[in-house]
Amino acid sequence: MSTNNTERVIVQSNIYISNINRLLKDIKSEIYANFICSNKRSIILTTNNITSTLDMQTIEKYIKNLNNIDSNEIISPRLFQSKSYLKILDISYFIKDTNLPIFADIIKIVIKSTYIFINTVLAFRPQIIKISLKLDMAIIRVNIKDSQSSIRAKNLINKYFNVGYYIVTIQETNINSDVPQCKNC
Q: pLDDT at position 76, please?
């Protein structure tokens, strides 16, 4: 949305919030808009809960029909995405038949080619963590872009898939892992 459109919306945000809430009530939605703010590129409308497709379509239709807004510059609304943190267990730390440790680019290729990761986007580079000095096993931490309800992560947790001869498991983890990242990754 252009700067002009953003400024026009912000100036009359109280009126727009009231009108949006009335429209949401008319469609029997339990959602209500709290406030409108802006960043450099868009306006952000916060609600009391996660919106449905119908709620977002209602809000979009209202915004596009405002008289003082150039509707050609309005991009369809979307939910913020969150990051889900997963770990892949029981994978070899070394590339097969070599003494070379695996690295993030290999993990990205494996994830892109594995059917259970279809439509999954990595938020950051995978972290490769060697379990111990004596074992040649690693834990891979991956952060994926996810919906607010973490539906992608929920569909991946406790799934198994093959990486070469290994059957690996995906588990949920948190962002604050005390395990250091591999220096060779």
A: 64
